[in-house]
Amino acid sequence: MDMDYMLDDGAWRQLLDGVAARFDELTIIRGFQYYKQGRVEELTLRDDGLHVDARVKDNRMYDVAVDLDDLAASECACSANGACTHMAATLMRYAELCGRPIQALANARSALKNLAASGKQDGRNGGPRAGSEKASPQPVRPTLTEKELTELPVNKWHERFQERRGAVHLHVRTAQEASDLLAELQAMRPMLPLALEQLFTLHALLFVLERMVKPAQMDSRPSGLFIGYHTKLALEGLCSQARTLLGDKLALADDSSAYWDRLMETADFLRERMLTEDKTLGCFAPLYASLWLHWLGPGSAGSAALYEKELLRLRSAEADLGSTLSRLPWTIAQCLFLLYLARDAEALAMLAREGIKLMLKPEHLAPLFGVLEGAEQWTRLRDWLAETGTLLVGSRSEDLASYGDYWANVVARLPEAESLMWRTLQEMMPFSRTVYEEALAAHGRWEQWIDLQMCMGEEPLSFRVTALKPIEKEAPELLLPFYHQAVERYVLQKNRDGYKAAAKLLKRLAKLYSRLKKDERWEQFISSFASRNSRLRALQEELRKGGLLS
Asked: Where is the SWIM-type domain (predicted)?
Protein backbone atom coordinates (compact mmCIF):
# COMPACT_ATOMS: atom_id res chain seq x y z
CA MET A 1 0.00 0.00 0.00
CA ASP A 2 1.22 3.50 -0.85
CA MET A 3 1.79 5.28 2.47
CA ASP A 4 0.35 8.51 0.98
CA TYR A 5 -3.02 6.78 0.73
CA MET A 6 -4.17 6.19 4.30
CA LEU A 7 -7.59 6.46 5.93
CA ASP A 8 -8.05 6.16 9.67
CA ASP A 9 -11.19 4.47 10.97
CA GLY A 10 -12.98 7.75 11.58
CA ALA A 11 -12.33 9.08 8.07
CA TRP A 12 -13.36 5.71 6.58
CA ARG A 13 -16.63 5.76 8.52
CA GLN A 14 -17.26 9.31 7.32
CA LEU A 15 -16.61 8.28 3.72
CA LEU A 16 -19.01 5.32 3.98
CA ASP A 17 -21.72 7.55 5.44
CA GLY A 18 -21.10 10.18 2.76
CA VAL A 19 -21.36 7.67 -0.09
CA ALA A 20 -24.55 6.19 1.40
CA ALA A 21 -26.14 9.62 1.70
CA ARG A 22 -24.94 11.09 -1.60
CA PHE A 23 -25.10 8.25 -4.17
CA ASP A 24 -28.09 6.17 -5.26
CA GLU A 25 -27.86 2.39 -5.57
CA LEU A 26 -27.63 2.24 -9.37
CA THR A 27 -24.82 4.82 -9.48
CA ILE A 28 -22.83 2.84 -6.89
CA ILE A 29 -23.22 -0.40 -8.86
CA ARG A 30 -22.20 1.22 -12.14
CA GLY A 31 -19.29 2.92 -10.39
CA PHE A 32 -18.17 -0.48 -9.09
CA GLN A 33 -18.29 -1.89 -12.63
CA TYR A 34 -16.22 1.04 -13.98
CA TYR A 35 -13.70 0.56 -11.16
CA LYS A 36 -13.40 -3.18 -11.94
CA GLN A 37 -12.95 -2.45 -15.63
CA GLY A 38 -9.91 -0.31 -14.78
CA ARG A 39 -11.41 2.87 -16.15
CA VAL A 40 -10.04 5.08 -13.37
CA GLU A 41 -6.74 6.56 -14.52
CA GLU A 42 -4.20 9.07 -13.20
CA LEU A 43 -5.61 9.17 -9.66
CA THR A 44 -3.75 11.54 -7.33
CA LEU A 45 -4.30 12.77 -3.79
CA ARG A 46 -3.67 16.50 -3.31
CA ASP A 47 -1.25 17.73 -0.67
CA ASP A 48 -4.12 18.71 1.64
CA GLY A 49 -5.16 15.06 1.87
CA LEU A 50 -8.80 16.04 1.32
CA HIS A 51 -9.11 16.16 -2.48
CA VAL A 52 -8.71 13.36 -5.01
CA ASP A 53 -8.26 14.05 -8.73
CA ALA A 54 -8.67 11.37 -11.40
CA ARG A 55 -9.54 10.78 -15.03
CA VAL A 56 -12.25 8.22 -15.76
CA LYS A 57 -12.71 6.65 -19.18
CA ASP A 58 -16.26 6.41 -20.51
CA ASN A 59 -17.35 7.37 -24.03
CA ARG A 60 -14.50 9.87 -23.52
CA MET A 61 -12.16 10.85 -20.70
CA TYR A 62 -13.78 12.76 -17.82
CA ASP A 63 -11.88 14.79 -15.23
CA VAL A 64 -13.12 14.13 -11.70
CA ALA A 65 -12.34 16.13 -8.55
CA VAL A 66 -13.63 14.54 -5.33
CA ASP A 67 -13.83 16.49 -2.07
CA LEU A 68 -13.44 13.85 0.64
CA ASP A 69 -14.52 16.26 3.35
CA ASP A 70 -17.71 17.26 1.51
CA LEU A 71 -18.78 14.90 -1.29
CA ALA A 72 -21.49 17.34 -2.35
CA ALA A 73 -18.72 19.76 -3.40
CA SER A 74 -17.18 17.17 -5.76
CA GLU A 75 -17.12 17.88 -9.49
CA CYS A 76 -17.07 15.87 -12.71
CA ALA A 77 -16.83 16.99 -16.33
CA CYS A 78 -19.72 14.71 -17.37
CA SER A 79 -23.26 15.92 -17.92
CA ALA A 80 -24.64 14.46 -14.67
CA ASN A 81 -25.81 17.10 -12.25
CA GLY A 82 -24.42 15.82 -8.94
CA ALA A 83 -23.07 12.47 -7.78
CA CYS A 84 -22.19 10.38 -10.81
CA THR A 85 -20.77 7.01 -11.84
CA HIS A 86 -17.32 8.51 -12.45
CA MET A 87 -17.13 9.89 -8.91
CA ALA A 88 -18.22 6.53 -7.45
CA ALA A 89 -15.56 4.69 -9.46
CA THR A 90 -12.92 7.19 -8.31
CA LEU A 91 -13.85 6.68 -4.66
CA MET A 92 -13.59 2.90 -5.03
CA ARG A 93 -10.15 3.16 -6.59
CA TYR A 94 -9.12 5.53 -3.78
CA ALA A 95 -10.45 3.07 -1.16
CA GLU A 96 -8.44 0.29 -2.81
CA LEU A 97 -5.25 2.36 -2.61
CA CYS A 98 -5.98 2.98 1.07
CA GLY A 99 -6.30 -0.75 1.71
CA ARG A 100 -10.00 -0.49 2.58
CA PRO A 101 -12.60 -3.15 1.49
CA ILE A 102 -14.32 -2.18 -1.73
CA GLN A 103 -17.34 -4.36 -0.86
CA ALA A 104 -18.06 -2.14 2.17
CA LEU A 105 -18.16 0.93 -0.08
CA ALA A 106 -20.34 -0.86 -2.65
CA ASN A 107 -22.79 -1.84 0.11
CA ALA A 108 -22.61 1.45 2.04
CA ARG A 109 -26.13 2.59 1.15
CA SER A 110 -27.88 -0.62 2.16
CA ALA A 111 -25.81 -0.91 5.35
CA LEU A 112 -26.90 2.59 6.39
CA LYS A 113 -30.55 1.77 5.67
CA ASN A 114 -30.26 -1.43 7.66
CA LEU A 115 -28.76 0.45 10.62
CA ALA A 116 -31.49 3.10 10.48
CA ALA A 117 -34.22 0.46 10.33
CA SER A 118 -32.66 -1.30 13.31
CA GLY A 119 -32.61 1.96 15.31
CA LYS A 120 -36.26 2.61 14.57
CA GLN A 121 -37.13 -0.91 15.63
CA ASP A 122 -35.23 -0.44 18.89
CA GLY A 123 -37.09 2.80 19.49
CA ARG A 124 -40.43 1.13 18.96
CA ASN A 125 -39.50 -1.71 21.30
CA GLY A 126 -37.69 0.36 23.93
CA GLY A 127 -40.47 0.06 26.51
CA PRO A 128 -44.13 -0.76 26.99
CA ARG A 129 -46.62 1.50 25.31
CA ALA A 130 -49.06 3.45 27.44
CA GLY A 131 -52.17 1.46 28.28
CA SER A 132 -50.57 -1.89 27.51
CA GLU A 133 -48.96 -4.51 29.64
CA LYS A 134 -45.60 -5.33 28.01
CA ALA A 135 -44.37 -5.00 24.46
CA SER A 136 -44.37 -8.43 22.86
CA PRO A 137 -40.82 -9.78 22.67
CA GLN A 138 -39.21 -9.66 19.26
CA PRO A 139 -38.04 -12.99 17.80
CA VAL A 140 -34.34 -13.69 18.15
CA ARG A 141 -32.72 -13.33 14.73
CA PRO A 142 -30.18 -16.04 13.80
CA THR A 143 -26.50 -15.15 13.96
CA LEU A 144 -23.26 -17.10 13.49
CA THR A 145 -20.35 -17.20 15.91
CA GLU A 146 -16.72 -17.72 14.96
CA LYS A 147 -16.87 -21.22 16.48
CA GLU A 148 -19.95 -22.12 14.44
CA LEU A 149 -18.47 -20.79 11.23
CA THR A 150 -15.32 -22.83 11.88
CA GLU A 151 -17.15 -26.07 12.68
CA LEU A 152 -20.39 -25.98 10.67
CA PRO A 153 -20.29 -27.02 6.97
CA VAL A 154 -21.09 -24.21 4.54
CA ASN A 155 -24.48 -25.69 3.63
CA LYS A 156 -25.44 -25.00 7.27
CA TRP A 157 -24.27 -21.42 6.83
CA HIS A 158 -26.74 -21.10 3.98
CA GLU A 159 -29.51 -22.58 6.12
CA ARG A 160 -28.84 -19.91 8.73
CA PHE A 161 -28.82 -17.29 5.99
CA GLN A 162 -32.28 -18.46 4.94
CA GLU A 163 -33.52 -18.44 8.52
CA ARG A 164 -32.30 -14.87 8.88
CA ARG A 165 -34.08 -13.87 5.70
CA GLY A 166 -37.28 -15.74 6.48
CA ALA A 167 -39.74 -17.43 4.15
CA VAL A 168 -41.14 -14.19 2.70
CA HIS A 169 -39.67 -12.61 -0.43
CA LEU A 170 -37.47 -15.55 -1.38
CA HIS A 171 -36.49 -13.96 -4.68
CA VAL A 172 -34.11 -11.05 -5.25
CA ARG A 173 -34.80 -8.96 -8.33
CA THR A 174 -33.05 -5.60 -7.98
CA ALA A 175 -29.70 -4.20 -6.93
CA GLN A 176 -31.37 -2.56 -3.92
CA GLU A 177 -32.84 -5.86 -2.73
CA ALA A 178 -29.49 -7.59 -3.25
CA SER A 179 -27.64 -4.89 -1.33
CA ASP A 180 -30.18 -4.98 1.53
CA LEU A 181 -29.88 -8.75 1.82
CA LEU A 182 -26.07 -8.62 1.80
CA ALA A 183 -26.11 -6.07 4.61
CA GLU A 184 -28.52 -8.29 6.54
CA LEU A 185 -26.22 -11.30 6.17
CA GLN A 186 -23.12 -9.33 7.13
CA ALA A 187 -24.92 -8.30 10.34
CA MET A 188 -25.00 -11.98 11.35
CA ARG A 189 -21.27 -12.33 11.92
CA PRO A 190 -18.88 -11.10 14.59
CA MET A 191 -15.36 -9.88 13.98
CA LEU A 192 -13.53 -12.78 12.31
CA PRO A 193 -9.99 -13.80 11.32
CA LEU A 194 -9.32 -12.58 7.77
CA ALA A 195 -9.49 -16.02 6.07
CA LEU A 196 -12.83 -16.84 7.71
CA GLU A 197 -14.16 -13.37 6.90
CA GLN A 198 -13.23 -13.88 3.23
CA LEU A 199 -15.05 -17.23 3.13
CA PHE A 200 -18.11 -15.81 4.90
CA THR A 201 -18.34 -12.81 2.57
CA LEU A 202 -18.03 -15.06 -0.48
CA HIS A 203 -20.88 -17.29 0.71
CA ALA A 204 -23.04 -14.29 1.53
CA LEU A 205 -22.60 -13.17 -2.10
CA LEU A 206 -23.29 -16.70 -3.37
CA PHE A 207 -26.46 -16.93 -1.30
CA VAL A 208 -27.77 -13.71 -2.83
CA LEU A 209 -26.74 -14.85 -6.31
CA GLU A 210 -28.79 -18.01 -5.91
CA ARG A 211 -31.82 -15.97 -4.91
CA MET A 212 -31.53 -14.32 -8.35
CA VAL A 213 -30.49 -17.31 -10.44
CA LYS A 214 -33.08 -19.84 -9.27
CA PRO A 215 -36.13 -17.80 -10.33
CA ALA A 216 -34.54 -17.19 -13.73
CA GLN A 217 -33.90 -20.90 -14.23
CA MET A 218 -37.46 -21.76 -13.19
CA ASP A 219 -38.70 -19.18 -15.70
CA SER A 220 -36.74 -20.80 -18.54
CA ARG A 221 -38.35 -20.30 -21.95
CA PRO A 222 -37.74 -21.93 -25.35
CA SER A 223 -35.54 -18.99 -26.36
CA GLY A 224 -33.46 -19.23 -23.15
CA LEU A 225 -33.51 -17.68 -19.72
CA PHE A 226 -35.44 -14.50 -19.11
CA ILE A 227 -33.74 -12.01 -16.81
CA GLY A 228 -35.08 -8.48 -16.44
CA TYR A 229 -32.77 -5.55 -17.10
CA HIS A 230 -32.46 -4.45 -13.47
CA THR A 231 -32.00 -8.02 -12.29
CA LYS A 232 -29.31 -8.59 -14.91
CA LEU A 233 -27.53 -5.42 -13.81
CA ALA A 234 -27.66 -6.50 -10.17
CA LEU A 235 -26.47 -9.99 -11.09
CA GLU A 236 -23.47 -8.58 -12.94
CA GLY A 237 -22.64 -6.37 -9.97
CA LEU A 238 -22.73 -9.29 -7.53
CA CYS A 239 -20.61 -11.50 -9.79
CA SER A 240 -18.10 -8.69 -10.14
CA GLN A 241 -17.91 -8.29 -6.35
CA ALA A 242 -17.38 -12.03 -5.93
CA ARG A 243 -14.61 -12.10 -8.56
CA THR A 244 -12.93 -9.15 -6.85
CA LEU A 245 -13.00 -10.99 -3.54
CA LEU A 246 -11.63 -14.18 -5.11
CA GLY A 247 -8.90 -12.16 -6.82
CA ASP A 248 -7.49 -11.12 -3.43
CA LYS A 249 -4.98 -13.46 -1.80
CA LEU A 250 -6.65 -15.88 0.60
CA ALA A 251 -5.22 -15.62 4.12
CA LEU A 252 -4.86 -19.39 4.36
CA ALA A 253 -1.72 -21.32 3.47
CA ASP A 254 -2.56 -25.05 3.31
CA ASP A 255 -4.72 -27.91 4.57
CA SER A 256 -3.43 -27.50 8.12
CA SER A 257 -5.74 -24.51 8.57
CA ALA A 258 -8.82 -24.85 10.75
CA TYR A 259 -10.82 -23.47 7.82
CA TRP A 260 -9.57 -25.90 5.19
CA ASP A 261 -12.73 -28.01 5.22
CA ARG A 262 -14.85 -24.89 4.66
CA LEU A 263 -12.67 -24.00 1.65
CA MET A 264 -13.09 -27.47 0.14
CA GLU A 265 -16.86 -27.29 0.71
CA THR A 266 -16.80 -23.96 -1.14
CA ALA A 267 -15.15 -25.71 -4.09
CA ASP A 268 -17.87 -28.41 -3.97
CA PHE A 269 -20.59 -25.75 -3.79
CA LEU A 270 -19.34 -23.90 -6.85
CA ARG A 271 -18.68 -27.08 -8.83
CA GLU A 272 -22.21 -28.38 -8.28
CA ARG A 273 -23.81 -25.15 -9.44
CA MET A 274 -21.43 -24.68 -12.37
CA LEU A 275 -22.13 -28.16 -13.75
CA THR A 276 -25.90 -27.68 -13.78
CA GLU A 277 -25.99 -24.02 -14.76
CA ASP A 278 -27.88 -22.98 -17.88
CA LYS A 279 -25.41 -22.25 -20.68
CA THR A 280 -26.94 -18.81 -21.30
CA LEU A 281 -26.35 -17.74 -17.70
CA GLY A 282 -22.60 -18.20 -17.14
CA CYS A 283 -22.67 -16.99 -13.54
CA PHE A 284 -21.05 -19.71 -11.39
CA ALA A 285 -18.50 -20.99 -13.94
CA PRO A 286 -16.31 -17.82 -13.76
CA LEU A 287 -16.46 -17.93 -9.96
CA TYR A 288 -15.42 -21.59 -9.91
CA ALA A 289 -12.51 -20.74 -12.22
CA SER A 290 -11.51 -17.75 -10.05
CA LEU A 291 -11.47 -19.94 -6.94
CA TRP A 292 -9.03 -22.39 -8.55
CA LEU A 293 -7.00 -19.69 -10.26
CA HIS A 294 -6.45 -17.63 -7.10
CA TRP A 295 -7.40 -19.17 -3.76
CA LEU A 296 -6.47 -22.69 -4.85
CA GLY A 297 -4.00 -21.85 -7.61
CA PRO A 298 -0.40 -23.14 -7.64
CA GLY A 299 0.81 -19.92 -6.03
CA SER A 300 -1.67 -20.19 -3.15
CA ALA A 301 -3.12 -23.22 -1.36
CA GLY A 302 -3.31 -25.55 -4.39
CA SER A 303 -1.30 -28.73 -5.00
CA ALA A 304 -0.93 -31.47 -7.60
CA ALA A 305 -2.73 -33.98 -5.35
CA LEU A 306 -5.64 -31.57 -4.96
CA TYR A 307 -5.89 -31.08 -8.73
CA GLU A 308 -5.92 -34.83 -9.34
CA LYS A 309 -8.80 -35.26 -6.88
CA GLU A 310 -10.80 -32.41 -8.42
CA LEU A 311 -10.23 -33.85 -11.89
CA LEU A 312 -11.67 -37.19 -10.76
CA ARG A 313 -14.71 -35.45 -9.28
CA LEU A 314 -15.34 -33.62 -12.55
CA ARG A 315 -15.06 -36.79 -14.59
CA SER A 316 -17.45 -38.71 -12.36
CA ALA A 317 -19.99 -35.89 -12.81
CA GLU A 318 -20.55 -36.87 -16.45
CA ALA A 319 -22.16 -40.16 -15.45
CA ASP A 320 -23.94 -38.67 -12.45
CA LEU A 321 -25.56 -35.74 -14.26
CA GLY A 322 -26.08 -37.19 -17.74
CA SER A 323 -27.94 -34.84 -20.07
CA THR A 324 -28.22 -32.12 -17.41
CA LEU A 325 -24.44 -31.64 -17.42
CA SER A 326 -23.31 -28.21 -18.62
CA ARG A 327 -20.54 -29.42 -20.91
CA LEU A 328 -18.75 -26.18 -21.71
CA PRO A 329 -17.65 -25.25 -18.16
CA TRP A 330 -17.13 -28.95 -17.42
CA THR A 331 -14.65 -29.21 -20.31
CA ILE A 332 -12.82 -25.96 -19.53
CA ALA A 333 -12.49 -26.90 -15.86
CA GLN A 334 -10.84 -30.21 -16.74
CA CYS A 335 -8.46 -28.44 -19.10
CA LEU A 336 -7.42 -26.10 -16.29
CA PHE A 337 -6.40 -28.98 -14.01
CA LEU A 338 -4.68 -30.85 -16.84
CA LEU A 339 -2.77 -27.63 -17.53
CA TYR A 340 -1.73 -27.38 -13.87
CA LEU A 341 -0.59 -31.02 -14.05
CA ALA A 342 1.41 -30.36 -17.26
CA ARG A 343 -0.79 -32.78 -19.24
CA ASP A 344 -1.20 -30.40 -22.17
CA ALA A 345 -1.63 -33.02 -24.88
CA GLU A 346 -4.55 -34.57 -23.01
CA ALA A 347 -6.21 -31.19 -22.53
CA LEU A 348 -5.75 -30.14 -26.17
CA ALA A 349 -7.12 -33.49 -27.38
CA MET A 350 -10.22 -32.92 -25.26
CA LEU A 351 -10.69 -29.44 -26.70
CA ALA A 352 -10.24 -30.73 -30.25
CA ARG A 353 -12.87 -33.38 -29.57
CA GLU A 354 -15.40 -31.12 -27.84
CA GLY A 355 -14.48 -27.65 -29.05
CA ILE A 356 -16.54 -27.27 -32.24
CA LYS A 357 -19.69 -28.62 -30.57
CA LEU A 358 -19.23 -26.30 -27.61
CA MET A 359 -18.77 -23.17 -29.78
CA LEU A 360 -15.71 -22.02 -27.89
CA LYS A 361 -14.98 -18.33 -27.54
CA PRO A 362 -11.69 -16.62 -26.61
CA GLU A 363 -13.14 -15.67 -23.21
CA HIS A 364 -13.53 -19.35 -22.36
CA LEU A 365 -9.86 -20.07 -23.03
CA ALA A 366 -8.51 -16.84 -21.55
CA PRO A 367 -8.02 -18.32 -18.03
CA LEU A 368 -5.92 -21.14 -19.52
CA PHE A 369 -3.82 -18.76 -21.61
CA GLY A 370 -3.50 -16.47 -18.59
CA VAL A 371 -2.00 -19.24 -16.46
CA LEU A 372 0.74 -19.86 -19.00
CA GLU A 373 1.39 -16.17 -19.63
CA GLY A 374 1.60 -15.47 -15.90
CA ALA A 375 4.11 -18.31 -15.50
CA GLU A 376 6.03 -17.02 -18.56
CA GLN A 377 5.83 -20.44 -20.19
CA TRP A 378 5.96 -19.02 -23.69
CA THR A 379 6.62 -22.26 -25.58
CA ARG A 380 3.58 -23.91 -24.03
CA LEU A 381 1.45 -20.83 -24.68
CA ARG A 382 2.60 -20.80 -28.33
CA ASP A 383 1.44 -24.40 -28.74
CA TRP A 384 -1.90 -23.72 -27.07
CA LEU A 385 -2.57 -20.70 -29.29
CA ALA A 386 -1.72 -22.64 -32.42
CA GLU A 387 -3.80 -25.69 -31.49
CA THR A 388 -6.89 -23.78 -30.38
CA GLY A 389 -6.95 -21.13 -33.12
CA THR A 390 -9.12 -23.10 -35.54
CA LEU A 391 -11.53 -23.96 -32.70
CA LEU A 392 -12.35 -20.26 -32.37
CA VAL A 393 -13.63 -19.98 -35.95
CA GLY A 394 -16.96 -18.22 -35.77
CA SER A 395 -15.90 -15.70 -33.14
CA ARG A 396 -16.39 -12.03 -33.88
CA SER A 397 -13.29 -10.06 -34.77
CA GLU A 398 -13.53 -7.86 -31.68
CA ASP A 399 -13.77 -10.94 -29.44
CA LEU A 400 -10.48 -12.23 -30.86
CA ALA A 401 -8.54 -9.13 -29.76
CA SER A 402 -7.28 -10.80 -26.56
CA TYR A 403 -6.24 -13.88 -28.56
CA GLY A 404 -4.16 -11.62 -30.80
CA ASP A 405 -2.60 -9.97 -27.74
CA TYR A 406 -1.42 -13.36 -26.45
CA TRP A 407 0.22 -14.04 -29.82
CA ALA A 408 1.94 -10.64 -29.72
CA ASN A 409 3.39 -11.43 -26.29
CA VAL A 410 4.60 -14.85 -27.42
CA VAL A 411 6.30 -13.53 -30.57
CA ALA A 412 7.96 -10.76 -28.54
CA ARG A 413 9.65 -13.48 -26.43
CA LEU A 414 9.97 -16.15 -29.12
CA PRO A 415 10.67 -14.45 -32.48
CA GLU A 416 10.87 -17.85 -34.15
CA ALA A 417 7.14 -18.31 -33.41
CA GLU A 418 6.20 -15.55 -35.87
CA SER A 419 5.78 -17.85 -38.87
CA LEU A 420 3.45 -20.10 -36.84
CA MET A 421 1.41 -17.05 -35.83
CA TRP A 422 0.93 -15.98 -39.46
CA ARG A 423 -0.07 -19.48 -40.50
CA THR A 424 -2.57 -19.81 -37.66
CA LEU A 425 -4.17 -16.41 -38.25
CA GLN A 426 -4.46 -17.11 -41.99
CA GLU A 427 -6.19 -20.43 -41.28
CA MET A 428 -8.70 -18.58 -39.08
CA MET A 429 -9.71 -16.10 -41.82
CA PRO A 430 -12.06 -14.36 -42.34
CA PHE A 431 -12.86 -14.33 -38.59
CA SER A 432 -9.31 -13.35 -37.66
CA ARG A 433 -9.17 -10.50 -40.14
CA THR A 434 -8.94 -7.66 -37.61
CA VAL A 435 -6.31 -9.48 -35.53
CA TYR A 436 -4.39 -10.35 -38.70
CA GLU A 437 -4.48 -6.72 -39.91
CA GLU A 438 -3.23 -5.45 -36.54
CA ALA A 439 -0.42 -8.01 -36.52
CA LEU A 440 0.63 -7.03 -40.06
CA ALA A 441 0.71 -3.37 -39.03
CA ALA A 442 2.60 -4.12 -35.81
CA HIS A 443 5.28 -6.00 -37.77
CA GLY A 444 5.45 -3.41 -40.56
CA ARG A 445 4.25 -5.81 -43.26
CA TRP A 446 2.68 -2.99 -45.23
CA GLU A 447 2.60 -4.66 -48.64
CA GLN A 448 0.52 -7.54 -47.30
CA TRP A 449 -1.63 -5.09 -45.33
CA ILE A 450 -2.40 -3.08 -48.49
CA ASP A 451 -3.09 -6.24 -50.52
CA LEU A 452 -5.59 -7.36 -47.88
CA GLN A 453 -7.44 -4.01 -47.95
CA MET A 454 -7.64 -4.02 -51.73
CA CYS A 455 -8.87 -7.63 -51.85
CA MET A 456 -11.56 -6.83 -49.29
CA GLY A 457 -12.65 -3.73 -51.22
CA GLU A 458 -11.87 -1.30 -48.39
CA GLU A 459 -11.99 2.43 -48.95
CA PRO A 460 -8.91 4.53 -48.04
CA LEU A 461 -11.16 7.28 -46.72
CA SER A 462 -12.67 4.87 -44.18
CA PHE A 463 -9.34 4.83 -42.32
CA ARG A 464 -8.22 7.51 -39.96
CA VAL A 465 -5.33 9.54 -41.30
CA THR A 466 -3.20 8.35 -38.35
CA ALA A 467 -3.71 4.72 -39.41
CA LEU A 468 -2.09 5.38 -42.78
CA LYS A 469 0.65 7.71 -41.51
CA PRO A 470 3.18 4.90 -40.85
CA ILE A 471 2.79 3.66 -44.44
CA GLU A 472 3.16 7.16 -45.87
CA LYS A 473 6.36 7.47 -43.88
CA GLU A 474 7.89 4.02 -44.43
CA ALA A 475 6.56 2.85 -47.81
CA PRO A 476 4.47 5.57 -49.51
CA GLU A 477 4.66 3.92 -52.93
CA LEU A 478 2.46 1.06 -51.62
CA LEU A 479 -0.45 3.46 -51.20
CA LEU A 480 -0.51 4.48 -54.89
CA PRO A 481 -2.49 1.48 -56.23
CA PHE A 482 -4.76 1.56 -53.15
CA TYR A 483 -5.64 5.21 -53.74
CA HIS A 484 -5.89 4.95 -57.54
CA GLN A 485 -8.25 1.97 -57.34
CA ALA A 486 -10.50 3.82 -54.91
CA VAL A 487 -10.57 6.99 -57.05
CA GLU A 488 -11.85 5.05 -60.06
CA ARG A 489 -14.48 3.37 -57.86
CA TYR A 490 -15.68 6.74 -56.54
CA VAL A 491 -16.01 8.15 -60.08
CA LEU A 492 -18.07 5.13 -61.17
CA GLN A 493 -20.69 6.06 -58.55
CA LYS A 494 -21.59 8.99 -60.85
CA ASN A 495 -22.92 11.19 -58.08
CA ARG A 496 -21.76 14.30 -56.25
CA ASP A 497 -20.69 12.44 -53.11
CA GLY A 498 -18.54 10.11 -55.16
CA TYR A 499 -16.91 13.00 -56.99
CA LYS A 500 -16.16 14.80 -53.69
CA ALA A 501 -14.54 11.63 -52.31
CA ALA A 502 -12.51 11.21 -55.51
CA ALA A 503 -11.25 14.81 -55.32
CA LYS A 504 -10.32 14.40 -51.66
CA LEU A 505 -8.32 11.27 -52.40
CA LEU A 506 -6.69 12.83 -55.45
CA LYS A 507 -5.32 15.61 -53.21
CA ARG A 508 -3.68 12.91 -51.07
CA LEU A 509 -2.27 11.33 -54.24
CA ALA A 510 -0.76 14.65 -55.28
CA LYS A 511 1.10 14.83 -51.95
CA LEU A 512 2.29 11.25 -52.29
CA TYR A 513 3.70 11.83 -55.78
CA SER A 514 5.41 14.96 -54.50
CA ARG A 515 6.95 13.06 -51.59
CA LEU A 516 8.17 10.40 -54.04
CA LYS A 517 9.57 13.19 -56.24
CA LYS A 518 7.43 12.11 -59.19
CA ASP A 519 5.75 15.44 -59.93
CA GLU A 520 5.99 15.00 -63.68
CA ARG A 521 4.23 11.64 -63.49
CA TRP A 522 1.48 13.22 -61.39
CA GLU A 523 0.93 15.99 -63.93
CA GLN A 524 0.61 13.41 -66.68
CA PHE A 525 -1.90 11.40 -64.67
CA ILE A 526 -4.14 14.29 -63.56
CA SER A 527 -4.19 15.73 -67.07
CA SER A 528 -5.18 12.36 -68.54
CA PHE A 529 -7.75 11.78 -65.76
CA ALA A 530 -9.42 15.17 -66.33
CA SER A 531 -9.49 14.67 -70.10
CA ARG A 532 -10.92 11.15 -69.76
CA ASN A 533 -13.74 12.44 -67.53
CA SER A 534 -14.29 15.80 -69.25
CA ARG A 535 -18.02 15.15 -69.75
CA LEU A 536 -18.61 14.75 -65.99
CA ARG A 537 -19.25 18.40 -65.16
CA ALA A 538 -19.83 17.82 -61.43
CA LEU A 539 -16.52 15.99 -61.19
CA GLN A 540 -14.75 18.80 -63.02
CA GLU A 541 -16.23 21.28 -60.54
CA GLU A 542 -14.95 19.26 -57.56
CA LEU A 543 -11.49 19.02 -59.14
CA ARG A 544 -11.38 22.79 -59.57
CA LYS A 545 -12.62 23.37 -56.00
CA GLY A 546 -9.81 21.15 -54.75
CA GLY A 547 -7.22 23.08 -56.73
CA LEU A 548 -6.48 20.05 -58.88
CA LEU A 549 -7.32 21.84 -62.14
CA SER A 550 -6.51 25.37 -63.13
From this structure: 62-95
